[in-house]
Specification:
Elements lengths: L2 H4 L1 E6 L17 E2 L2 E2 H10 L4 E8 L4 H10 L7 E5 L4 H9 L8 E4 L9 H12 L4 E7 L6 E2 L9 E3 L7 E3 L3 E4 H15 L2 H5 L9 H7 L5 E4 L10 H16 L4
Parallel strand pairs: 1-4, 1-6, 4-5, 7-12
Antiparallel strand pairs: 2-3, 6-11, 7-10, 7-11, 8-9
Helix pairs in contact: 6-8
Bound molecules: cytidine-5'-triphosphate and magnesium ion.
């Protein structure tokens, strides 16, 4: 394996609107401790020696703004590329992946909305791929008991069953992949979308992460330990929690 193949590239989907966070700028550009979420997320990746290149999939009308933002936050000396993202997370990842040089053999995909992922998680995911796994996800056990229901808007919703919590994991990012595996499943998903069967949606549930695509097409995905601070900023309360975590880090001078 040559040096380039051993260093991973990271794709950062950052083109979402952040509707669940409420009105305002696109989520990746919202601030946490005075710094945009995206900048936190990119810094977390560049801190890892396993990552040699970061490709950001920015809101399609915000590419120039994102380039300027990364430069103004001291990231101008890092190997970072910015491309226009798409209308779904999957499309944004696919567009980011297409901008990675052919010789890069390992790709991590990390949500801009997970600004506080510790570098240890990034390193652990990259090493598991380097050690031979084709797809790796960091995950944590669940605190809540989970029930499957028959969805009824407004409820009450009949409960179908209660999966054994010990076998459940909440998955985070960065998820890590052999580059050929990730490119192949994204290409297959795109091809499927354009066929009548795909559009009609067989009984399959929607795929919400990249590892889910690998599973869907028969690949093998493994889980490594994630971290509670790698949570996704989705709703307003998550931003409150993220501010508290950041304040604690700054107070501990670990930042
Ligand atoms: N994402 C993206 N392109 C899209 C949609 C989402 O790159 N068309 C990115 C988001 O920017 C985010 C990550 O995918 O970093 C995870 O998505 P999510 O948390 O759902 O973010 P949003 O889609 O922005 O939020 P919401 O669903 O509340 O609108
Ligand atoms: Mg979304």
């Amino acid at each position: 394996m040559n040096a380039t193949a051993a260093v991973a590239a990271a794709v950062v989907p950052a083109a979402g609107r952040g509707e669940r966070l409420g009105p305002g700028a696109p989520k990746a550009l919202r601030e946490l401790g005075g710094v945009p979420l995206l900048v936190h997320a990119v810094r977390a990746l560049t801190r890892s020696r396993a990552v040699g290149l970061v490709v950001v999939a920015a809101p399609a009308d915000g590419v120039a703004e994102v380039v300027a933002l990364l430069d103004s936050h001291g990231l101008e000396d890092k190997d970072i590329r910015v491309v226009a993202g798409g209308s779904t997370r999957q499309e944004s990842v696919r567009l980011g992946l297409a901008a990675i040089p052919a010789e890069v053999g390992i790709v991590l995909v990390h949500d801009a909305a997970r600004p506080l992922v510790p570098v240890e998680v990034v390193d652990a995911v990259a090493s598991a791929v380097r050690a031979g796994a084709e797809a790796v996800v960091p995950a944590v056990p669940l605190a809540d008991t989970v029930k499957r229901v028959e969805p009824v808007p407004g409820g009450p919703e009949p409960v179908l069953d209660t999966p054994d919590r010990a076998t459940l994991r909440a998955v985070q990012t960065p998820q890590g992949f052999r580059r050929d595996t990730l490119a192949e499943v994204h290409a297959k998903a795109l091809a499927e979308e354009s066929t009548a069967e795909g559009a009609a949606g067989t009984a399959l549930p929607p795929v919400t992460d990249d590892a889910g695509l690998v599973e869907r097409f028969g690949g093998r995905v493994v889980v490594v330990p994630g971290h509670e601070e790698a949570f996704k900023v989705t709703r307003p309360l998550d931003l409150v929690l993220a501010e508290a975590v950041l304040a604690r880090r700054r107070a501990a001078d670990a930042y």
